[in-house]
Write a structure and sequence with these properties.
The structure is a single chain. By secondary structure, the chain is of the alpha/beta class. It has two domains: 293 residues, TIM Barrel; 93 residues, Galactose-binding domain-like (Jelly Rolls, Sandwich), CATH 2.60.120. The protein is built from eight helices and 16 strands.
């Protein structure tokens, strides 16, 4: 779950225009425990805080700039949102990530952290490197680092020293890729591999995927909750009409998580510091619907094989199958089909697919079956299927 929060929240804008006095930034109800409860309500495993957006405001106790939480009234200037969130994540069993934008309007640094005045570049490089070092050394284990818009500043040594086991979104050290849109949809097929040359650009997307690529970088799908007739990453008054409804959320779940990608759904605390109640209710309902649909399979199995079969207790209506690969062995499946049978002799094709990866959710018309099997038609090596599950999901919010 993303947490987008900055002075832009006080302005109702998407980018900080510096019109907000730091004296106005006093989120007296800010409660990172609430943020974690919201994340867990819909099944998120990691929270990524936008610790510094392009305006340059920093939510932690940094020595690099006065444009930060230390010069606000919140907690007498002693507050540290990154510290509070790190403690809450530990309490709730969530991983912690950080978004620290290389761009910085105060320095005239554009995409990648490149300053308009080349003479300022060396100085800004030092500032940014110090900011990143602070964030990676003071708040425990960081699971993911977000370099939005690429990162041209050399920080590889910092990442290697202080966050060697994290994953990196964009930049020269990238091990994740942007899907290429902010609409919540990953492609199908979704290959986790691409060429080393494309990955080295720091801005490769799902469009660069290559089933036979020589580098590995899964796709992450970032999407705002407010995009129903608009597109907002930061809270603003009177914007509940933009909130995605349940059908839209399930549609993007099928086409992100269900296509083997990582879903990064945004949250937007308001000026009080809390995620609004109307948003909280939607996240909770979303989580309940995911659990209703996929919490309990009719049956499941796993195995290191090119064919797996499930035998149901009796002829049963099925309409969904979930497949997962053990990615510690690599993404091996290149094509597969699932079939069903009533007698174990005559088989009907239920679905034909290509990529599986972390999770592939396949839906099809209701079929009454006693036997269901998956046959791997093409692979790189014998796949490790960590989950082959069969479901009957009733209507309601099921995506089309």
């Amino acid at each position: 779950m993303f947490v987008h929060y900055s002075p832009a929240t006080w302005q109702g804008k998407e980018y900080d225009n510096w019109t907000t006095s730091l004296k106005q930034i006093n989120p007296t109800k800010l409660n990172t425990d609430q943020w974690c409860e919201v994340a867990k309500s819909w099944g998120a495993k990691t929270i990524i805080l936008v610790a510094k957006h392009v305006g340059g405001f920093c939510w932690w106790q940094t020595t690099t700039t006065g444009y930060s939480i230390k010069n606000t009234p919140w907690k007498g200037g002693k507050g540290d949102v990154m510290k509070s969130l790190s403690e809450s994540c530990k309490k709730y069993g969530l991983d912690l990530g950080v978004y620290v934008n290389p761009s910085d309007a105060h320095w005239g640094a554009k995409d990648g952290g490149i300053t308009e005045d080349p003479k300022m570049q060396k100085e800004y490089n030092g500032i940014y490197r110090q900011q990143l070092t602070e964030l990676l050394t003071k708040y425990g284990k960081i699971k993911e680092v977000w370099f939005d818009g690429n990162c041209q500043i050399d920080v590889a040594d910092i990442l290697k020293q202080y966050a060697p086991n994290a994953v990196y979104f964009q930049g020269k050290s990238a091990s994740l890729r942007w899907v290429g849109n902010e609409d919540g949809f990953a492609p199908d097929p979704n290959w986790y591999t691409l060429s080393k040359k494309d990955l080295a650009t720091g801005v490769s997307t799902s469009q660069n995927s290559d089933v036979n690529g020589d580098a590995y970088a899964p796709v992450e799908v970032d999407v705002p909750l407010m995009q129903n007739g608009g597109h907002k990453w930061f809270w603003a008054p009177h914007t509940d009409s933009l909130l995605l409804n349940m059908h839209q959320l399930m549609e993007l779940y099928y086409k992100s998580v269900g296509h083997g990608a990582v879903l990064l759904l945004n949250s937007t605390p308001d000026t009080s510091g809390l995620i609004p109640a109307s948003h909280v209710a939607i996240y909770k309902a979303f989580g309940n619907e995911i659990r209703r649909c996929f919490g309990t399979p009719l049956a499941r199995t796993q195995g290191h094989a090119r064919e797996l079969k499930i035998t149901l207790l009796k002829p049963t209506v099925v309409n969904h199958i979930i497949l997962r690969e053990d990615l510690s062995k690599g993404q091996r499946v290149k094509a597969y089909r699932t079939e069903g049978s009533l007698d174990g002799k005559t088989w009907t094709t239920l679905y034909k697919g290509t990529s599986i990866g972390n999770k592939k959710i396949d839906k099809f018309e209701n079929k009454t079956m006693k036997y269901v099997r998956v046959i791997i038609e093409s692979d790189k090596e014998t796949p490790y299927i960590s989950d082959f599950s069969v479901y009957h999901v009733t209507a309601k919010s099921v995506a089309k």
